[in-house]
Amino acid sequence: QVQLVESGGGLVQAGGSLRLSCAASGSIFSINVMAWYRQAPGKQRELVATITNGGSTRYADSVKGRFTISRDNAKNTVYLQMNSLKPEDTAVYYCNRIQQGRDYWGQGTQVTVSS
Asked: How many whole angstroms separate alpha carbon 63 and alpha carbon 68?
């Protein structure tokens, strides 16, 4: 089993920044993909960004140029730096890890962007 614990959410004004963190613990396997998803009220969960254990990244078009995903493999932690936040970025952000064919999810952290 793998446990994921997110932190760093909160309330910020439009144009501001937040940094989310997600720490993984438990049965860690070195080959993995970590990702951030988000779910706004009344909407489906959507992929925000992914990063492989080798550092390759992918982003949703809606966040390209504003968000940066990174990771510290020694700490088993993934980060999401969110800049130039918009009200439409308001959502619960979830950390996800895929390893050995299994999906793991964090409990989510609320990000609210006021206009």
From this structure: 9
